[in-house]
Design brief:
- With about 750 residues, the chain is α/β, with parallel strands linked by helices.
- It contains 25 helices and 32 strands.
- The strands form 8 sheets. A 5-stranded parallel beta sheet has the order 3-2-1-4-5. Strands 11, 12, 13, 22 and 23 form a 5-stranded mixed beta sheet that branches.
- The protein is globular and about 85 Å long.
- It starts with 5 loop residues before the first strand and ends with a strand.
- Bound molecules: shikimate-3-phosphate.
- The site of shikimate-3-phosphate has 12 residues, from helix 15 and helix 17.
- Keywords: Amino-acid biosynthesis, Aromatic amino acid biosynthesis, Cytoplasm, NAD, Oxidoreductase, Transferase, Tyrosine biosynthesis.
- InterPro entries: 6-PGluconate_DH-like_C_sf, Enolpyruvate_Tfrase_dom, Enolpyruvate_Tfrase_sf, EPSP_synthase, EPSP_synthase_CS, NAD(P)-bd_dom_sf, PDH_C, PDH_N.
């Protein structure tokens, strides 16, 4: 048996939290000896009966002798008295921690007891878990599982003490976060203490009414949900409200202002403002849900969802439309927000990335209705109307949102910070920060090696630049053009090769003049955008998975309706055609300034390997993961060059695809700027070629969806781990794939 984490653990107090932690220690044999001190003899007796402690004491000073971990699981106001009592007998290397829900007062109490300096083992903590029940019998071994524990190490705290406590809480399956003491108290005042105060206030308000019995009798879910926490222990909350007085009073003030504003909207019948405020709150609540659900993404191997694709799909057929274009959806919000007047958007992609952009503009004071069935109404605030967001803007998984917003925010007269998820946090941001700095912007990529978060300072006067883009990037081009809207003079961007031109097209649709001369795009700053209606076409990048799926599957027949076929996006069509796919484009028309068409692909011909023309690379930049699957099914070798950009997408798409393909038995060699894939296909032979595999998607939606399609030609099960990001661009992917005939199952791994 391995050495336990601790020799002797002493609990001072053994209520819900203390006894739950004691249960974890007992269950996992984390200590050689566990003792406790409580006032109640019955508690000690019961704890011994339950097998939680080896010995019980009534004097803390007796309990802590020779303990290497002391856990203060007592009301926070008793901290000073207990610390004073045990000071003389605490072992020199003992870790002393607590579980109180306020931290500044615990630290102050310790400082009063240790004026000469706090012990290195003193590390305050706060498990954010609880229940309305209290006492040693209420404890549960899984009380902390999937909950957060905040540690607030002090400058005096030793690293070893923090590390050991982290190990302890992780053994309880908690997620450990370290935070500054004041920050902890402020965060908790808003997220826990204020809601409790409000719940008590609401229930009390109803109790004071004469008809309260009726009201309680008829109260429905809303009252029950809102008031649940008013059933908590009054003594404990009384203590907390005083313990965190300063931060709570501030939170109450903030809430009073908010409530008064809502009251006034109702009083004066400001319907538009009220709907805007409620909509903002509703969207923020949904967004928080998303952020909470995304949390596991922040840890390297922790993922929230998995796909299992069973072999042997014998059919891949159907006629349907895929959701709206991601690039166009992002831009519709941005341009609608800074336009004069009201913009209506249809076909909007309700994927998580575009919703994050929506939230960002709501956070900057833009009133937006929807989305509902792909429809949005954006009440534009004009070029000078954006307001400073109260906190960092979260861009989820989206490089497009972050780079375009960087340009837009660089020109505003307020500071802002842009953050993102685990994948976005690794992506290069200097490519946009550098040209913006040349325009006079104050912008820093504050992550390691030029990665997010991006910190942008107020800068009302940008200068236009004439910039040669070092890489073919529509995002960088667009970010610069967006900053150029506010800059003095004419901003010109020259691209090495044409990239998607949605920004140029949409600016023109909003009445803004943009000149395109060959690869040079320019616009003059200082104009204004006029609201318009935007019809978002179906995303060819989402259609691509079905195009490839149909191309590799015998007798398949898929028609994708109303797909955007902007010539800067149609590389996938050209490349598949060159590989010999049976693909037809029909019913070409224009919708909302963008060309669209129906695309039909049939599985009637074996694909052949090709050398992909480099001029097609920017035009198919997002479709390569899917195209690699097609190449693996083709007869002969496919060679891709000139695609180094693939290495800095949501994941390193060259490496991640190569790793997965090799696992599935495909011979392929990644190169600096591309890949060589030895196709396993044989003319006229549609048999399965992919071996089973467990693919790590690296938080990249397109990796997950591409390998899903490989299931159409696999002879074993394919598992794809970390598929939650599929919802960023294609929320209905699994539904449509199933409908077409793919045997795909979704497993939620957490919550
Ligand atoms: C996009 C541009 C491309 C593309 C991304 C969307 C856009 O990125 O990969 O998915 O909307 O401008 P780069 O501009 O970095 O190539």
């Amino acid at each position: 048996m391995s050495t336990p984490l601790f020799e002797k653990v002493a609990f001072i107090g053994l209520g819900l939290i203390g006894s739950s932690l004691a249960r974890v220690i007992a269950a996992q044999h984390l200590a050689k000896q566990v003792v406790a001190c409580t006032r109640s003899a019955k508690t000690l007796h019961d704890a011994q009966q339950l097998g939680l402690i080896d010995a019980g004491y009534h004097q803390a000073a007796e309990a802590v002798v020779a303990a290497d971990l002391i856990v203060l699981a007592i009301p926070v106001e008793s901290t000073a008295a207990i610390l004073a009592e045990i000071k003389a007998v605490v072992a020199p290397h003992a870790i002393i921690t607590d579980v109180g829900s306020t931290k500044a007062n615990v630290v102050a109490a310790a400082q009063a007891v240790y004026p000469e300096g706090l012990p290195a083992g003193f590390v305050p903590g706060h498990p954010i878990a609880g229940a309305e029940r209290t006492g040693v019998h209420a404890g549960k071994v899984d009380l902390f599982a999937q909950h957060k524990v905040i540690l607030t190490p002090l400058p005096s705290s030793a690293d070893w003490a923090v590390a050991k406590l982290t190990q302890l809480w992780q053994a309880a399956q908690a997620e450990v976060i370290c935070m500054d003491v004041d920050k902890h108290d402020e965060v908790l005042a808003h997220t826990s203490h204020l809601p409790h105060l409000l719940a008590y206030a609401l229930v009390q308000q109803l109790v004071n009414r004469e008809d309260n019995l009726d009201i309680f009798r008829y109260a429905a879910g809303g009252f029950r949900d809102f008031s649940r926490i008013a059933a908590s222990d009054p003594q404990m909350w009384h203590d907390i409200f005083f313990a965190n007085k300063t931060a709570i009073l501030k939170a109450v003030d903030g809430f009073s202002t908010q409530l008064a504003a809502l009251k006034q909207c109702i009083e004066t019948e400001q319907r538009q403002t009220l709907i805007g405020q409620l909509g903002h709150a509703q969207a923020a609540r949904q967004h928080f849900n998303h952020m909470l659900a995304q949390k596991p993404l922040m840890e390297k191997h922790n993922v929230a969802q998995q796909f299992t694709i069973l072999p042997g799909a014998h059919r891949f057929q159907g006629k349907f439309s895929v959701p709206g274009d991601k690039s166009v959806s992002h831009r519709s919000i941005m341009f609608g927000a800074i336009a004069e007047g009201t913009t209506h958007v249809t076909g909007f992609l309700e994927g998580e990335d575009a919703l994050a952009t929506l939230q960002a503009f709501r956070d900057m004071g833009v009133s937006i209705e929807g989305p509902k069935n792909g429809e949005l109404t954006i009440h534009g605030v004009g070029m000078q109307g954006l307001k400073a967001p109260a906190s960092a803007l979260y861009m989820g998984n989206s490089g497009t949102a972050m780079r375009l917003l960087a340009g837009l925010l660089a020109a505003q007269s307020f500071d802002s910070v842009l953050t993102g998820d685990a994948s976005l946090s690794k992506r290069p941001m200097e490519r946009i920060a550098k040209p913006l700095r040349l325009m006079g912007a104050q912008i820093q990529s504050t992550g390691e090696r030029g990665t997010p978060p991006l910190s942008i300072s107020a800068q009302p006067a940008l200068q236009a630049i004439d910039y040669d883009l070092p890489m073919a990037s529509a995002q960088v081009k667009s970010g610069i053009l967006l900053a150029g809207l506010w800059a003095q003079g004419t901003t010109t961007v020259t691209e090495p090769e044409p990239t998607r031109d949605h920004t140029e097209r949409m600016l023109r649709a909003f009445g803004y003049e943009v000149k395109t001369e060959g690869n040079r795009i320019s616009l003059q700053g200082g104009g204004q955008l006029v609201a318009t209606d935007i019809q978002v076409p179906s995303d060819i990048s989402s259609a691509a998975f079905f195009m490839v799926g149909a191309a590799i599957c015998q007798d398949s027949d898929i028609t994708l309706e109303a797909v955007g076929i902007n010539p800067t996006r149609t590389g996938i069509i050209e490349i598949l055609k060159q590989m010999g796919a049976d693909l037809t484009v029909s019913n070409e028309r224009i919708a909302g300034g963008e060309p669209i068409a129906d695309i039909r692909i049939r599985g009637s011909r074996t694909l052949k390997g090709i050398h992909i023309p480099e001029d097609q690379v920017p035009l198919a930049i997002d479709e390569f993961p899917a195209l690699f699957i097609a190449a693996a099914c083709a007869q002969g070798r496919t060679v891709l060059t000139g695609a180094a950009e693939l290495r800095v997408k949501e994941s390193d798409r060259i490496q991640v695809m190569a790793d997965g393909l090799i696992q599935m038995g495909i011979d392929c060699t990644p190169t600096d700027d591309g890949i060589v894939i030895e196709g396993k296909g044989k003319d006229g032979d549609w048999s399965a070629i992919f071996a089973g595999a467990e693919i790590e998607s690296h938080h990249d939606h397109r990796i997950a969806m591409s390998f899903s399609m490989a299931g159409l030609r696999s002879y074993e099960t394919i598992r794809i781990v970390g598929t939650e990001t599929v919802a960023t661009s294609f929320p209905s992917f699994t539904e449509l794939s199933k409908q077409a005939g793919l045997e795909i199952q979704v497993h939620e791994l957490t919550e």
